Amino acid sequence: MKKQLLFTILIGTLIVAFILDIMIGSANLPLNEILNVITDHESNPIYKEIILNHRLPKAITAILVGSSLSVAGVLMQTMFHNPLAGPDVLGVTSGSSLGVALLTMSSSILPLWLISSWGQILAASIGAAAILLLILIVAIRIPNTTSLLIIGMMFGYFAGAIVSILQSSSQPDTLKLFITWTFGSLSSVGWSQMYVMAPIIVLGIGVSIFLQKPLNILLLGNNYAKGLGINVLNLKIWIIIATTLLAGVATAFTGPIAFIGITIPHIARGLFKTNNHSIVLPASILCGASILLICDCISQLPGFQGTLPINAITSLFGAPIIVWIIIKNKG
User: Fold this and answer.
1) How confident is the model at residue 33 (pLDDT cuts 50, 70, 90)?
2) Domain around 24
3) How many domains does the structure of the chain reveal?
4) Contact call for residues 290 and 66 (beta carbons, < 8 A)
């Protein structure tokens, strides 16, 4: 009964955060106008344009990205048995950043249409896919989880080093374009991008839910899982693929968004007092979506000059939680 009540509260929180995210912005919108637009009743055409083509896709993007990064975090923490593992430990996020950096820093010799939002999405996706291919090769050749973690981090550092070199030799305009992408933006996803992003994220979450039983067994250790007939190597490959789909696509479409993937799984486990993936995965989906919606609301509160970078807000939220986790584990 307690778990059902918690899930009901989380669903209610998600609905409230979703409505607030649509209401709050450069122009605050009345609730009745939002309801009129959503229910297809007669409404102010200006409000209708703002809600349908700007606020609604941004709020749906927050739900999708918050869910995907949270689930990816659960997968990584389970696979590496590390509470501080996140979606970026395999270097996927760094691969996306490298792809965008190579595109934007080469903007002087590329046609303008290629540097559009779709161009950045494609470049980030190629970068993430390249890292995925390397990680899969390593995972097959070196089944040791700790070694895989270290190699994934090295891929990330290597990609980051190339990005730094490109930044040091780039023009101010192209450098500004890349840095703006690294801030993260939920408003960069319109309906045309949503039709591509949403199915891939849903697929990644579906794969993760399908893996929930072997993930529970993997919590007990690799040897125990092997003893129960689990093909650990195949399981890890599927985890890597699902994580890359979730984290890679989210980063490609919205830019890097920090700390959601690391902190949300801990919040879900803390609320339900369990490591059971049949509970932790849906709880992480609800918590991640709600938290990212709330962070987006905070980034648009009145009094700020424009909109604050979503990456900065999630970092302010997540960093204290990580410190608390480290202190708690040490104790």
Assistant:
1) confident
2) 2-330
3) 1
4) yes
